[in-house]
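User: Could you go from structure to sequence for me? I need the amino acid at each position, not a summary. Structure tokens:
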């Protein structure tokens, strides 16, 4: 039995449950496996994620990948927050394989996070692997810790943004990004 499995058995007991009852016998194992998947971003290597899929291109116009869904866990309550991520960047001689944007998002979402930090980490990763002239990341999410418990607000949405390089220094670039993602 893994350490995490043992701890989940203790959590079940702590909740007043009987870890020996039939329906819960395999629950510590399942929960440990699920949580290991949901935090697998800690052991994900950015070079493996990108897998060399950075291609030479003389297209230096803005590229936008919109609506990448993500599932993360808030670091305060270990409850899910779920939403979408929009990424734009200005290539500087190299473009990144399309699917790699989603892989980068997952790499940072599959950790204990706060939305602000995750947004910044994604922007910095795109900047680093592409050497681009600028990058913008916008994330919008609903936090279960605000819906299922606590203030129990069902309709609020948190939107965070990070703009680097030209996206930060040039309002026209930022405006073009916003227009392209329909904001
Ligand atoms: N800024 C930010 N806050 C978050 C995020 N996820 C959760 N939180 C907030 O973290 C805060 C933790 O506040 P505490 O007062 O320490 O915890 P709490 O008593 O459980 O707070 P309530 O949720 O207000 O009941 C709450 O306001 C949460 O809404 C996030 O991604 N970003
Ligand atoms: Zn929370």
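Assistant: Here is the amino acid at each position, in order:
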């Amino acid at each position: 039995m893994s350490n995490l499995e043992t701890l989940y058995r203790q959590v079940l007991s702590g909740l007043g449950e009987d870890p020996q009852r039939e329906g819960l016998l395999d629950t510590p194992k399942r929960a440990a496996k699920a949580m290991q998947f949901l935090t697998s971003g800690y052991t994900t290597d950015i070079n493996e994620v990108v897998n060399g899929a950075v291609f030479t291109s003389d297209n230096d116009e803005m590229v936008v990948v919109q609506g990448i869904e993500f599932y993360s866990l808030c670091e305060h309550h270990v409850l899910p927050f779920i939403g979408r991520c929009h990424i734009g960047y200005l290539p500087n001689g190299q473009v990144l394989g399309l699917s790699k944007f989603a892989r980068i998002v997952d790499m940072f979402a599959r950790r204990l996070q706060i939305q602000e930090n995750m947004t910044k980490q994604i922007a910095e990763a795109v900047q680093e692997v592409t050497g681009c002239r600028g990058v913008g990341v916008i994330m919008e999410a609903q936090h279960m810790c605000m819906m299922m418990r606590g203030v129990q607000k069902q309709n609020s949405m948190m939107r965070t943004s990070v703009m680097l390089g030209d996206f930060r220094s040039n309002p026209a670039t930022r405006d073009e990004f916003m227009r392209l993602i329909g904001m």
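One structural detail worth keeping in mind: The beta strands are 54-56, 63-74, 80-90, 94-96, 112-113, 134-143, 158-165.
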